[in-house]
Structures are given as structure tokens and as C-alpha cells.
Amino acid sequence: MSDGTLYDHVWDRHAVTELPTGQTQLFVGLHLVHEVTSPQAFGMLAERGLDVAYPERTHATVDHIVPTADQSRPYSDDAAEEMMAELEANVGEAGIDFDDPTTGRQGIVHVVGPEQGLTQPGMTIVCGDSHTATHGAFGALAFGIGTSQIRDVLATGCVAMEKKQVRRIEVTGELGDGVTPKDVILTVIRKLGTDGGVGYVYEYGGEAVEAMDMAGRMSICNMSIEGGARAGYVNPDGTTYEYLRGRDAVPQGDAFDELRAYWESVASDPNAEYDDVVTVDGNALEPVVTWGTTPGQGVGISEEIPAPEDLPADKRETARSAQKHMGVEPGDTMAGYPIDVAFLGSCTNARLPDLREAAAVVRGREVHDDVRAMVVPGSQRVKAAAEAEGLDEVFTEAGFDWRGAGCSMCLGMNEDQLVGDERCASSSNRNFVGRQGSKDGRTVLMSPPMVAAAAVEGEVTDVRELEAVREVRA
Amino acid sequence: MSPNAGGDATSSSGPADTVRRVTGTGVPVRGNDVDTDEIIPARFLKVVTFDGLGQFAFFDERFDSATPEESRDGGAVGADEPLDHPFNEERFQGASVLAVNANFGCGSSREHAPQALMRWGIDAVVGESFAEIFAGNCLALGIPTVTASQEDIEALQDYVDEHPDAEIEVDVAAEEVRYGETTIEASVDDAQRRALVDGVWDTTALMAANADSVEATAASLPYTDD
What we know:
- The complex is a heterodimer of chains A (474) and B (226).
- Chain A has 15 helices and 19 strands.
- Chain A is an alpha/beta fold.
- In chain A, helix 2 packs across helix 5 (147-156), helix 6 (181-192) packs parallel to helix 8 (214-222) and helix 12 (352-362) crosses helix 14 (391-398).
- Chain B has one domain (5-200): Aconitase, domain 4 (Alpha-Beta Barrel), CATH 3.20.19.10.
- Chain B has 9 helices and 9 strands.
- In chain B, the strands form 2 sheets. Chain B has a 7-stranded mixed β-sheet. A two-stranded antiparallel sheet of chain B has the order 2-3.
- The radius of gyration of chain B is 19 Å and the shape is globular.
- The N and C termini of chain B lie far apart (50 Å).
């Protein structure tokens, strides 16, 4: 078993007791709530006559069903309006802070937590959403839970968990121009498999990760679940602390220094023991795109799409059906794959640095005639900050639609959906069949600058081959 | 809805019973990496209760519907063109043991997925491996997720195909799956086995009993001073 890792430290600090099942009762430092997975949990609580135990450690937003065009109430979709009204009633009654769209703070749950400083190192963080691992970028232990577990957390402030093993993923070297954290995580999933992380928590480190800003670290941790790992994290460091300083929920002055001492204390020890260590050569990476229908079916932009018979036996059948669905042939590269839709958004890649990187590609160019392109900022604050530096104009002048904040076309729970067998260049996290709202739709996952390049060229394009594209990550 | 969709009783309330074994006919759903978007597409998540989700299990693989709007309302289900899928086959109606392959239930944390399977009639899932959140969600509903080797699972799936009326016995306590003359060695995660066999998977009740210790843990954390 691991010893002395951040996972061990945070686990030990939050362990309440051992349950008769052998699981550990773990105290939850931050419970994030959204409209899709919570209503049934609040219902179960009411059925049992229980109250929310720690409303002050709970925070809500609305993201999955929220329209990104006309956000006036009532929403035109009755089902969406009902879910919003249910959430308002539940959080209102329990006294839970809620970023409703009139606050100017609304956005995707994994964007608003960090940007408000609610997400902090050394915390346990849960949410009824599999992408909760995002918050691990701050050195928190963060994982997705189901609705019955949401009931547990609402009622007791705790979750019942079994301890996992820890795999260190060391990304050495330096990422080249046009290569982003998204390319790192798509490589990790391709290498270790979509179920390689089952039973593990991933610790991401090494020079390339240490050099990343918080947005980049969030992109990587975000997709841990796509590799089967329920949680992933990066040890907190100076980059983390500077990001947090001055945020709404972060104390200032001496209180900040006291907290910082705790944050430093939970980082993995220099001689920490891991259950497994995997190394990825950051110098060798190129932009990665997916050719199939699982996030593990990725390929470097200059590499050939693999033949199913060259893959391990258990991957062949999935590869065959994926290639049929996508309309791709082994031996081709993904460069040149035609694109109908470009989606820049999601909890993986809709933060300000992501929008800046994409805007740098788009500036002075136009969206291809055959492409409908949209930018969906991760939160109202991301949107406002982007507008303050004129990014909205860069996008709209090029022909992108500039939308309100939400999950949008990542999963098509609002009106933003693929139609028929449209092919989408997407900065989101899942290329599952039907994920973007049409069961015949085809999703190609890639980084924000690669989405921008695909939007202007009308086909999957190596962003490094477009002129005058420079690294702008702040 | 299948006739034995009565598992709903364990879904949300009341003291948990024990689940030492599940017996019933089987239904195979083949393929690795079956994700929760396949088990229940996101458009059916626009609900505030889990009631009635059974009819949407594997919806997009069971029905060819022209538009999401047409298939969103429960009433439109009959209007959709049925496709080949085990959940549509007459011989598998009434099945309660689902036989699947590797990494079943990957993707989204939506509890709607096991809720839809349970409300269709599934009381136990036997597979090569499961995604963690999915398995945890099943446990919360009292549904065992039992693993066995690829060879044994494929043999079970073939058997169920040929003998849709045969009883499959999933013995959680003994970690075995029995059918016909065959017994296969299965594996049940320790905590899951204890929870089901001892009837202690109602974690809300278990943890609520420790409220004082929770307070003490909370107070010991530097970040709870605010």
C-alpha cells in the first residue's frame, strides 16, 4: 500500500471511523451540488425526515440543463424549468449557497468551485458528477459519487469509502508548442486504458505538470475518470497558492498563512511510497485527437489510425465498431477528417487560459463555411473576464457563436446538440456514441487550440501547421 | 416493465434487508466499455425522481427514434422502431441477472443507470469488471456486481442465450455463480459482500450513528475555522 502520499495524508485527516462493512467513514470538506443528480437525494432525505447536516460546507450551482442562448425564466424546456425550480426550492430550504444565474457566478460546477476559492488543498471534495476529480488539481482528494451517496453526504457530512491504491504518473520534460495538458491526459488514457485506473487514485507530477498553470492541471485531473480512476491530483505548490490568494472563499493575511502551512503539510513526502509508477515523456508528445468512441481511442495527429487486429484482443471488437461509427479507416491519419461542428467548452477546457489559447488561433481567421462553431465559457465569470480582454470579439468576428455558461454540448442536456451524423471537433471529455445528443453524431476529442484550428479549416488540422500561432497560456 | 421490477422497495428507504443470493433468469448484454450514456442517455435525466426510468434502459440501442424530442416523453416509446437488443427480446423479459463484459458502467456517475436497470427488472449483475462509481451506485441499491473471468462470463452469456428460461443463481456469500450443472468461481468486493450479506448497505443510517465523531473530525481540520 501507498505511504506518505497526499492521498494518505488527506485520507487520515478526514477518517472518522471504520464502518461494519470495512469501509471508512470519511468527512467531506466540500460538497458541490447541481440540478441533475441531487433532486432524488433531497427527496430521500425528506422521506426519512432528515435535515442537511452541514449546509455551510455545501455549495450549489446549475449547469447541465441551463440554456446557453436565452436564459430568461421560465426556461422554454419545461423539464429544465422543473429541475431548476426543484433545485431552488431544495437549496433554499436547506440554506445552501447557490450560484443561480442572477448572481453572476453561475457556471459549471468544476469551474465555479476553484474560481471562487471553495476548492482548496487538503480538502475532501465530492459531487454527484464523475468529473469531480478536477478539484484534485489543487491537492484535494476529490471524487464523483452517485445519488444515494449524495443523500449520505447531505444527511451526515460523510461518505463511506474504501481506500484505493496510488499510481504516480510522472510527466517528464517540456511540452512543445501547440501541445497542451489535454494531449497529456489523452495520452495517459490511451496508454493505460479506459479501465487501467480502476482501483487507483492517480497522482500527476513531474516537470511538465509542475510547469502547468491551474487550468492545465484541472484539465488533466478532470479526465482521470476517463481512465477509470475515480480521483486524480497534483501536489499543491507555489502555483496553487498564488492562484488561491485573494479568491472569495480564501481567508487573507495570517489566516492565509496558517492554511498554507496545512496545505504544505498534506503534499506527498519526498520519500512517499506508491503502488505503481508510470512515466510519460512530455518532450515526445504531439497534439492528440480521438478516432473512436472511447477516450482511450486516441492518436497523435501525425500517427496512423490503428488496425483493430493490431490491438490487444479485448480492444478489437470495440475498435471495429468505433471505426464503423466514426467512418475512419486504419492506416489513415485523423488530419483531414471533415468537421461540421466545433464545440469549445466543458469542465475540461472552458477556463480563461483555454479560451485565450483558442482565440490566439482564431484571431484574424474565419470559421469555415461548412462549420457551425460555438464557445461556451465555463462560468459567467470566465465569460466576463474573456469579454474584458476582448476575446468575445475575436470569436464572434471569426464567426463563432458566443454563448452563456453551462455544460452545453458536452452532453446535450440542453438545446445544444449534434444533429444526425454531424462530426464535432470538441474540447470536452467524452466521445461516447450519443454523448452529444445524437446517437449518430460523431465526436472527436481534442485540445482548445486544435478545436479552433478545426473550426477555421473545416477539418481536423495540426494546429502547429497554421501560421503565427503562439503559446499564450498565461 | 418486467414483472419482477419490484426491487424498488430497496431503492430509497427503510432498513436494508440482506442480499445473500439472487436467483432468476438471465439476460446477456455483450461488449466492453459499455458506458452509462448507453445505459441511459442524458436526455432521460431531466427528471426529479427515478420513477419510470426502466423503460429507458439502453434506449438508443433498443429503439430507432427520429429525434430526441420524440423519444423523450414516455408516451412516445411505443412509437419508436424497436431494434435488435436483448432487452427487447421476448425470451429475456422477466430476467433479473444481467451478464456483461469488461469495464461495464464506465463514464458518468449518474445513478440513473443502475436505477434504470433495476426498474427494468435487474437484481444482480455478473461481469468481467465494473467501473467503480457504477459498482458503488449498484451497492447503494442492494444490487450485487459480481466479477468472474472472461472465459467464464462468455460461457455464462452463451448459456443464457441458449437457455433463457434457466435459473441463474448468484451466490454473494459464497462468491459463486451457479447455472445448470456448472458452478463458476466469482469474486465480490469485500466491503460489498459484507454490506449485502450482513444487510448493512444503508450507509446513511450507519454513518448518522457517528455524528459526534464527525463533529470532532470536522473541528480538527484547519479549514473548518471560517
